[in-house]
Specification:
Elements lengths: L3 E5 L4 H12 L3 E8 L3 H6 L8 H14 L2 E6 L1 H17 L6 H20 L4 E3 L4 E6 L4 E6 L15 H5 L1 E2 L7 H10 L21 H9 L6 E4 L5 E5 L21 E7 L4 E6 L4 E12 L9 E6 L7 E7 L5 E10 L6 E6 L2 E8 L2
Length: about 350
């Protein structure tokens, strides 16, 4: 009897080709598109952008083309609470969140998986570029980096053993160019559709404007200061800045200057010259480890502090059951509170957490 798979279909080329590969592998595939954005944000940006009405229609067209059933599930409440509210709250605290990680953690691999199992599916599947395999030596599921240049393991460090055992990622080691080739070969209507580059609920990438509209709060101007507290100028509200930022500061110093700290308590943003944005240590919480349950001793890893960063040699040092110190062998640029730090042993994802200092 064919195993039943509920495939998350975003309306993009990746999840559409994932459907093709699952069908070729003999699975009974049903596509599902998650309605995530609250209605008012759907209306404001009805066409274009991730999770738009156009995306739902594109996913439906692909499902029809492939002869599979297509569902739409309304997860707007879960998304609003765990992604939008989290996103806004982090920026208000002077941190820079990663809403895509939150969406994967709470929506796609939690709420969607629970719904799939309830409906009698054996697996969920996504169009992520990562590997999942079972290691018989340690009797654990492992998440691995994809050989593809589009490896997305960084945004999946939160996965649990149960989630991995019920998840398929058919794109695993395929290059994006090959994905588009397959989409064209099967005459899929999304074969040349561009990838979404924006946060789905933020129009025109205007984070600060969205947060002010969402909260009804006006974030006041404050002082740019240096490390000694000297006032250098005025900023336009803390939600408009992130650690390491150099552009659009409105400060003329005659030399490059960067955001090194954001303090919501006194509404100040600290600026520093070249080199000041480098640090050798960070503290992380909200930890998840995939091959083992917790970290009880020091461990050497490769660590990434943002999606596009190059993994750097580091040592993990347990502080408590909920926090660890990450000590890098070489200073890292713009370690940012609110972002994820993810740990690797060569190509295996050890786990990760949220940077708090």
């Amino acid at each position: 009897m064919k195993k039943k798979v509920l495939l998350g279909m975003s309306g993009g080329v990746d999840s559409s080709v994932a459907a093709i590969l699952l069908l070729e592998q003999g699975y009974d595939v049903t596509g599902v598109t998650l309605k995530l954005r609250p209605d008012k944000y759907m209306e404001e940006n009805a066409s274009g952008g991730c999770c738009s009405i156009d995306d739902i229609n594109d996913a439906r067209r692909v499902a029809y083309k492939l002869g599979i059933q297509h569902l739409v599930l309304n997860f707007t409440d879960i998304f609003s609470k765990n992604v939008i509210d989290y996103f806004v709250g982090e920026y208000k605290q002077g941190r820079t969140p990663n809403p895509c990680i939150a969406c994967n953690k709470y929506v796609k691999f939690n709420a969607m998986l629970q719904k799939a199992l309830l409906l009698g599916f054996d697996y969920i599947a996504t169009g992520h570029y990562s590997n999942i395999r079972y290691d018989n030596h340690i009797h654990r599921w492992l998440l691995e980096k994809s050989d593809s240049s589009k490896d997305q393991s960084y945004v999946l460090y939160h996965l649990t053993q149960k989630q991995l055992s019920h998840t398929l990622m058919p794109l695993s080691n395929i290059e994006k160019s090959r994905t588009r080739e397959l989409a064209s070969l099967y005459n899929l209507p999304v074969a040349q559709k561009p990838d979404s580059q924006e946060i789905c609920f933020v129009k025109d990438n205007d984070y600060a404007g969205f947060i002010e509209t969402y909260t009804g709060e006006k974030f006041e101007c404050g002082n740019f200061i240096d490390s000694t507290g000297k006032i250098l100028g005025k900023h336009k509200g803390i939600t408009r800045y992130t650690i390491g930022q150099r552009k659009n500061l409105g400060i003329s110093t005659g030399y490059p200057i960067y955001v090194t700290d954001i303090n919501p308590q006194n509404n100040t943003i600290t600026l520093g010259a070249e080199g000041s944005q480098y640090k050798s240590e960070l503290i992380a919480d909200n930890l998840n480890f995939i091959p083992f349950n917790c970290l009880d001793k020091e461990l050497n890893v490769d660590a990434k502090i943002r999606y596009n960063s190059i993994p750097a040699k580091a040592k993990l040092i347990p502080i408590s059951s909920s926090q660890i110190k990450v000590s890098f062998y070489e200073p890292q640029r713009a370690i940012t509170k609110g972002q994820a730090v993810v740990f690797y042993d060569k190509n295996i994802v050890i786990g990760g957490g949220t940077i708090v200092s």
